[in-house]
Every structure is written in C-alpha cells, then in structure tokens.
Specification:
With about 600 residues, this protein is an alpha/beta fold. The protein is built from 21 helices and 13 strands.
C-alpha cells in the first residue's frame, strides 16, 4: 500500500523506514494515522481513505509498517496480539575482524526494526575504545565514543535499543600481546582474577559502556572460561576450586554494574559443570546464581524441542531470571546456514514459550574471520520474527525488504555444496577452498559427483543474480565467485595424486599449464569480489587476514605448478605425494553433508601456523 501523507507524532520514524520499504507517494493513496496507546501489540484499521495504526511501542509500529506495506488492499481491521517474548533482539559479533561500518549497523537496525525486533546488540571483545586503556582495540577498528553515540541515538529514533555485549573474564586474548596486559593474563584468553589491575581494567570498561550507551542493559559475557584459575592464578594463589574463583569474580563485576547503574546478563554455561549447554544435566549444575544477574542459555545446535525443554528446565532450577539465545549461523565461512538455523530456532522458540521464557535473542557470531555478510542471515531473522509475533504477515513482506522472495534468498545457503534442506549443516565451501592440493587433508570426504553438485548450486545463485532484483546482490556475487573457484579446485588434489601415481606426465603437464592458471584467475576474481563486499559493509581493519589467506592460496598454487613442471620436465619427485595418503580424521564426521570444520589454520595445512 502507498500513502500520500502520515499523521502522528511518530511519522518521522515511518518516513525513515521509507529507505527500506516504500510507503509514500506524492499525491496518491490514503492517509496513514499513527496512534500510540495501550494496545497489546498493534491494530490496523481502514475507514474510507484513512488507515489507522494503534500500537503499544515503536517495535510494534515498525512491524505494523512492514505489514501495511505488504498488503495489496485493506478492507477490514487487522489485529495482532503482542509478541510471545517481552524482550526480543539480535546480537551482531563485531569482534572477529569484521567491524561493521556505522551505516551498515544503521541499515541492519532498520531491517531488524521492520521485522519487529526491539534491540540490537554489539558483541565487542576489544572493539570498543575504552577511556584509560589506549591499547584496548588498538588497530582493530574499535568503535569510538562518537560512533557509539551516533548508533545509540539512531537506534532510539527508530525504536531499537542498542545494547553492549562485552567480556569480563574470558575471550580477551587479543590484548594480551601488549606488555601492559600480560601481568593480568591467567591462561590463554582469561583475565587473572583478584588482581588490582584487572579490577581497574573492568572499571574502565564497564564505566565506558555506561557512559556511551543509553541503555541500562549489559551482557557481561563470562562464558567458556574453562581454564580460569589454572594458569598464573594457581602459581600465585595455589589451587582454588573454579566455582569459588568464578563466584569471587562475578561478585566484583556485579558490584561494578551496580556502581554504574547497569542491569547485567551473563552467559550461563559456567554454571553447568564448565560444559557447553548441550551437555547440561541436572547433576552437573554448579553454583548459585546471585541476585541481580540474568543468565542466558545459549544453544543453536539442535532442532528438537525436547532438547531445549530439558535444558531450560535445568536453568529454571538455578534461577527465575533465565533468557535464551539462539543463533543465525553465519560463523563458518562465507556461506550461512539459514535453513538449519530456522529449524533450530523454531524448536527453541516453542520450548521457550512452554517454559515461559521472556527474553529471546538471535546471536550472529563471526568465528574465524567473520567472512559471511551480516545480511546473509536475513531469512533466519525474518522467520524467527514470524514465530515470535504469529501475526500472519503476507509473504511479500520479505521481498519488500530484500527485493526477492524468501525462497529465492534461501538459495544463499547453496554456496555450500550438499547444503540440503537444513536438517544438518556443513561448510564445505570453506575447506574445499583451502584444502591443500598436495596434502589433500579433506580429499577422502569429497564425493565423486561433487563437480556436478557445485555446478547445480552455482546455477541457482546465478539465477538470483540474473534477475537483478536482490538488494544484496553483491553477497550472492561473492558466493558465485566462490563456487567458480571450488568447481575447479575441489577435485584438483585428487586429480594430481592419481596422475602422479600413474606417472601420467602428459595430463600432469596439462594440469600445470592450463588448469592451475585458470584456477588462479578465478581466485583473483573471488578476491576482488569479496574485497568489494567487505568494503561495502565493514571497516578496513581485519581484511588483511583474508588477503593473507587467499593470497597464500594463490602463491601455493604457483608453487604446486612449479613442482609439477619439475616432475614432468626433469623427473623431480614431489615429496608429499610420495607419502601414502590416509583418510581425513580431524573429527568423527565423514560425510560432506554434515562436516563443518571452520578453522582455516587446520584446513590449509597439517603443519604449524604461528
């Protein structure tokens, strides 16, 4: 629907959404009247040439705007009940090299608002400039005071609360390279508990957050600190049960939150036997959750309602203040797993409703380089909002946001060969890209029909690009270039080893002189396209890691070509090919449909990196 004018004090907000969904025309259409009140959810009603929206808060107005825009005609009242969670948001990881530009975050917030999310969180391990800590976030693209305040103000304008997600115990490994922080490193990425310098750092961190964000909500992290007290701490203080160390440190952090008027949430896994949430059972729970903190159970691995139900019940025994965090899988390469994520979140939402959970967050992590676009997981966010609101929004709403129907957008998952229908997930595109053509770490899991599979998947993505309608076409273009590369590279190693064992020099010559140069050209195209995507969305910091990885791949192919030429022309043996190859055995998965192995450092070589 289109409107000639908007009436009401929140009209500026709706006009801002016109950047994403077109509602306004100069002289045609009805008038849109906005009325904020006590309505539980939103009500849309048309009378003659006036459409009235009544709404409880801006998140409901925003979703109502998307619904109105998606309606072809309106002839009767539409009533949507309130969402099933009081607190509903999405968290963006900006700590794994991809620090989103301010304009990117703003666009993401607009899309999230239109889908009905109430908050957007920024996960910042060290990517926040801190008063009094000059090396914190140094040369990492850390957000400045001005940038945070600009994003915070913009979020408040469109009804999105900007929330800080920080770390106050583990996951702070990047700063330990600097001398000024080495004295407070316990083990690996964990701060040394009980030190004055640690308390000073946390005071600076939490105080900075309090002064730059207008929200009183904060996530203090404290997850996966499995080695707390097992490094420098035990040398200085002797053996202390981890439970006691955790309780002591948590008390300090909660005191700092109270000092600055913040309401903390923390990840729950350290209360459960220092295991991941998928291992939770009643018998493994440890510690008592102190008053004043909400625990967030994070889990995005199962599609079984019973799985989440069991673990939520275990959490309820520890605390009345339990939140849930699901996931939009964008953290295992350039390609997301929307279909898997949607099914996992469907199950989690049902279990959360059953257990009367009031807070639900979709996490968008960026492990091992944050290669995937933050817009690649829009179908997951859209589907979760559908389940949370249950308001039968027209299917065309997603197309308004992205330019194409959700069924077409979901083909973004097909950048991973054998992606299937989402009952499992793999990141085959990443390890096929970096699998060494001589070592062939992953060669044993590569099916015989992989070239045909890749060609079929590439054709799906090409159709999306050929339509020219997708507003995020540059993301699909990167995936197409990725498939162009792995089409030729996936079987290169197996081909080279087979021909070498047969001493087929003629075909090895053709491989060295024709196939490898063509592959190098495709890799260069991928690099340029990926760099364009990165520069559209992210600050420049961190892309040098991709330059090192892809540049290393190009150089390695040059070396492989030289070795093949040496063998063909001078009978120079290729040492690694003389060693018998044994099957892949990094983990138990042996099927490409379910093998998700994300560490570039392990994908690229069995030898030591760093």
């Amino acid at each position: 629907m289109f409107f000639k004018n908007i009436i009401g004090k929140d009209r500026d907000i709706v006009e801002e959404f016109n950047k994403e969904v077109c509602l306004l025309r100069d002289s045609t259409g009805d008038s849109l009247c906005l009325e904020k009140g006590d309505t539980d959810g939103y009500v849309i009603e048309k009378r003659e040439h006036l459409v009235t929206v009544r709404y409880k808060d801006i998140s409901y107005l925003s979703r109502a705007v998307l619904r109105i825009a998606a309606e072809d005609t309106m002839e009767e009242k539409i009533i949507a009940q309130g969402r099933c969670f009081r607190d509903f948001g999405v968290m963006l990881d900006v700590s794994r090299n991809a620090v989103l530009k301010v304009e990117t975050v703003k666009r993401f917030m607009r899309l999230a608002a239109l889908m009905g999310y109430a908050f957007v969180g920024l996960y910042m391990e060290d990517t926040l400039k801190i008063d009094g800590e000059p090396y914190w976030g140094y040369q990492r693209g850390a957000y400045t005071e001005a940038e945070i305040k600009e994003l915070d103000q913009y979020g408040r304008f469109i009804g999105i609360e900007l929330r800080p997600y920080i770390q106050t115990l583990a996951h702070v490994n990047q700063v330990f390279r600097y001398e000024s922080y080495r004295d407070i490193m316990d083990a690996e990425d964990i701060l040394l508990v009980g030190e004055e310098r640690t308390e000073k750092l946390l005071d600076h961190l939490i105080g900075t957050v309090a002064h730059r964000f207008s929200t009183s909500q904060i996530n203090i992290g404290m997850d996966e600190a499995y080695l707390v007290g097992r490094g420098k701490y035990i040398e200085k203080n002797g053996y202390t049960p981890r439970k006691e160390i955790m309780q002591k440190h948590l008390a300090l952090v909660l005191d700092l939150c109270r000092k600055y008027g913040l309401k903390p949430q923390m990840w729950s896994d350290m209360f459960f036997g220092f295991s991941t949430p998928e291992q939770v059972s009643d018998s493994r729970t440890e510690g008592v959750v102190p008053e004043g903190v909400e625990i967030a159970y994070w889990d995005y691995y199962s599609q079984d309602v019973g799985h989440y139900d069991e673990r939520l019940k275990a959490h309820r025994k520890l605390s009345d203040r339990v939140a849930f965090a699901g996931g939009a899988w964008k953290w295992s390469g350039l390609v997301p797993h929307n279909r898997f994520s949607m099914k996992a979140n469907d199950a989690a939402i049902e279990a959360c409703k059953k257990n009367h959970i009031s807070s639900f967050t979709i996490t968008c992590w960026g492990d091992d380089g944050a290669e995937a676009s933050c817009f690649s997981i829009l179908p997951t966010l859209y589907r979760a909002a559908e389940k949370v609101y249950g308001d039968a929004i027209p299917a065309s709403a997603f197309e308004l946001l992205t330019g194409i129907p959700i069924e077409e957008y979901l083909q973004i998952d097909d950048g991973n060969p054998y992606a299937g229908e989402g009952n499992t997930h793999n990141n085959s595109s990443k390890y096929l890209l970096y699998n060494d053509p001589l070592y062939g770490t992953f060669d044993s899991v590569i099916p015989n029909d992989i070239t045909e599979e890749i060609q079929n998947q590439r054709e799906k993505i090409k159709k999306v690009l050929d339509s020219g309608k997708c507003r995020f076409g540059y993301v699909f273009e990167t995936e197409k270039k990725l498939l162009d590369v792995i089409e030729q590279k996936a079987t290169l190693g197996k081909r080279i080893r087979t021909l070498y064992e047969k001493k087929d020099k003629e075909r090895l010559r053709e491989t060295a002189q024709t196939r490898i140069p063509e592959l190098q050209e495709r890799i260069e195209d991928l690099y340029c396209t990926f760099k364009k995507q990165w520069n559209i969305e992210n600050k420049s910091y961190g892309f040098e890691i991709q330059a090192i990885r892809i540049g290393g791949l190009k150089q390695r192919l040059k070396d492989v070509k030289e070795m093949l030429d040496g063998y063909v022309q001078r009978d120079e043996p290729i040492e690694v090919l003389e060693e018998k190859q044994i099957p892949f055995s990094y983990c138990t998965a042996e099927s490409m449909e379910s093998l998700n192995y994300n560490l570039w450092s392990h994908n690229v070589t069995p030898n030591v990196i760093g």
